[in-house]
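Changelog entry

Holo records now carry the ligand SMILES as an explicit input line rather than a separate metadata file. Below, a converted record for S-adenosylmethionine, shown in the new format.
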Amino acid sequence: MAGDEGEDHGLLRLLMGPWLAEAVAAAVRLGVIDRLGGAPASAGELAEGLSLAADPLQRLLRLLVGLEVLEERDGRFALAPMGERLHSRHPSSMRDLALLYRSDFFLGAWRGLADSVRTGHQAFASVYGRDVYTYLAEHPAEAALFDSGMAAGGSFADALPAVYDFSRAGRVADIGGGDGSRLAALLKAYPGMHGVLQERPQVLAGARERLGSHIDEGRCELVGADFLAEVPVAADAYLLCRVLHNWDDDSCGRILANCAAAMGPGARLLILERVMPDDRQAWLSRAFDVHMMVMTTGRERTAAEYEALLRPAGLGTLEIRDLGAEMRVLVAGGD
Ligand SMILES: C[S@@+](CC[C@H](N)C(=O)[O-])C[C@H]1O[C@@H](n2cnc3c(N)ncnc32)[C@H](O)[C@@H]1O
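Structure line, unchanged by the conversion:
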């Protein structure tokens, strides 16, 4: 039976998703994207300059033009707007996310999806015999890629200073703040702000590099502590960005209780997550929900589910604002 062409096309696009992602990652790894950031070049110039095989490169470039990562004019290739976002020096570069999503440790966990749905066992732990953060503590190269990939997928937070007014938050604490990129952006936007980053001790070296100038000026401190055990940080505003979706409800309860215990009167807790919308088109949130299922014991949650987690900690939702890319900031407080 002849299939509908629209369905064929849509289904092929899904089935070939891994090929297309690998084509993009290959162009990044081979240095093609960074080289094209300088100036347009022909396939021959690229092949010679990067010591690549001319015919295979030509065919990879042709695919990337079809995917709107590159543009071709008069036989010369240039970065299209999506390609620009893959350049390592773009201020909101997604380069390391392209590499992280093609990494063996991410793909290996996803290969456990069907078994996980069959058995109910957590996929990452079934495949690797440990949880993701224990695995990262044992694998420094993957951990470095994870931290930089997380930062590269965090451009939604660029909108944060415009969406939430931090002018009355003299001290801001980013709990599980990764490599410190978001805190660095906030410290830049608010010159009077003091920042604190709480992370696993293994992550602090990268954060020290990112936040070094602010640490030297005495505007920023790093705290190596387990947020499941304590949040030993006094601040006016606390950020939990893409943290709670990593954890089951019980662990979220502990993290939130530890934040609540640290919060003084009037302090605010900002939860940055893909708060699940009802919108049927919101496929990103659904994809990240399954990704959380594969990688962690966590999930993406609705606003009502976050409210149910906040209440036992004596906190409640004050407002929810959109950040873009289906990300939202849920502002919580205890008063
Ligand atoms: C998904 S990443 C998000 C990082 C960052 N907030 C962002 O949005 O880019 C979760 C972060 O939680 C940190 N983390 C995990 N377990 C932790 C723990 N027990 N105590 C403190 N930080 C932890 C990880 O190191 C990681 O950087």
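Spot-checked after migration. Residues 133, 150-151, 154, 176-178, 199-200, 203, 226-228, 241-243, 246 surround S-adenosylmethionine (CB under 6 Å). The first helix runs from residue 5 to 15.
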